[in-house]
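Example 3.2
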Amino acid sequence: MIVPTRRAVLLLAAQVPLALLPALVRPALWALWAAALATTAGAVMIEALLGRSRGTASVRTQAPAALYVGEEDRLGLTLAGAWRARTEVEIRCDVDEILAAPPPVRALAGPAPVQAETVLQPRRRGKATLRAAWLRWRGPLGLLQWTQQRELGQAIPVLPNVRAVRGAALRFFGSRQFLSGLKVERHLGDGSEFEALREHERGLDARAIDWKASARHHKLLSREYRAERNHAVVMAIDTGHLMSEPLLGIPRLDHAINASLLLAYVALKTGDRVGLFAFDQKVRLFAEPQGGVRAFGRLLQQTSGLAYSTAETNFTLGLLELGQKLRRRSLVVVLTDFVDTVTAELMIENLSRLGRGHRVVFVALRDATLDVLAAADPFDLDRLSRAVIASDLVREREAVLARLRRLGVQCIDGLPGAVTTQLVNRYLDLKRREMM
C-alpha cells in the first residue's frame, strides 16, 4: 500500500494559492501554477520509482524456542529486499493477546539483508503467535510512504518462569547457610526417624532409652534418630478468577506457579516427595506425590497446562476432595487469594478442617497498591474515599490471616518478589523443627 506523507499533502496544499493567482492577479500567471503542479507531480513520480523495492521484501524471524512468563526475550529479524539505496525501514510485529505489543524497530535496509532485534514480553502462559510483520518506509524525498505486510504465523510456547526458579535454586543451594542446614539434618540424634541403637552414655537424653532392647542385652541402650525424609509435600493451587487478575503485569496464578516450582525443586532435592493439586469450581488436576529430581519435569509440564479460569473458587469441594485423596499426613501448601472477610469464611472453615490432619501453609500475594492507597495523604474527597476503602481491605485481610494463624495454619502474605523466598524459608524451618 502506498500513501502520501504529510510533506506531500502540505506541498499539494501550497498549490492552492498559486491556482488562485490567475484569477485574482493576472491570467498569465497560470503558467506559474502549471509549472509548480508539474514539478510536484514529477517529484511524486520520481519518488514512486526510487522508493519502491525491486521485487518483494521478506522478513525472517529467529525466535527463542520458548518464552517464560515475566521475562523478556529477544526476537531476531532478518530483512531482505532489493532496495536501490539505503532506506530506513520501520518494522512492527503483530502478535496475539498473550504477548505485549513489541516496540517498533528501525533498520537501514539496502541491497543486502540486514539484521534487527525487537523484544517479546509474555503476559501469560499459552501458545504465543507472531501473526505478521508490518514494514513501513519512505522514499528519498519523503513524499510517499510504503506499507507492506508479511505473514509470519509462528507459534512460541510460553512456560512458567523456570529461569527464575533455576536462579533462585542456585542461590539457595549455593548458600553456605543452606548447605550447613542440610548437614545438620543428617546428623544422628536429630529428627524423629529411627536410625540405630547405641550404648547409653552420660549426657544422652534419657527419653531415648529403649528399655526392651536394654533388657534383652542386659545393658542400657539408646535409640538414635535422624531427620525424617520422604515427606509428602502437596502444592494446592487455586486457579479461580481472582488468580487470573494481573499483579505487576503477570496473573497471580503465574506468580503462584513460580513459587510452587521453586519449593518443589528444593523439596525434591532434600529427599521429599512433591504432588500437585489444582482447583477452582471443581478439581482440575491431582498428581500423587513423587520423589526424585526427575519429578520436577512432570510438575513443570502439569503447571504449564493449568488454564486461567473465570469461575469462582469452591473451597469446600476442592479442599474436601484433597483431604480425601491424601493417604498420609502431608505438608499442604495452599496458594490462593481472597478479597474480604465475608468471601473468606468458607476458605477459613475448610482450611481449618484440612489442618486437623495435615500441616497447612497458606500463601497469598499482597498487592502493594493497597498499602500505597491506604497510606496516601487525602488531599481531596476522591483520594480520601480511596484511602478509606483501601484501609478497610487491608484491615480485613489482616483479620483473616490472624484467624488462620490462631487455627494453627502457617500464613505467608508477601509481595510477588518476596513470597517465593519466604515460602522456601518456611518450608526449611518446618523441616528442621520436624513440624511436617
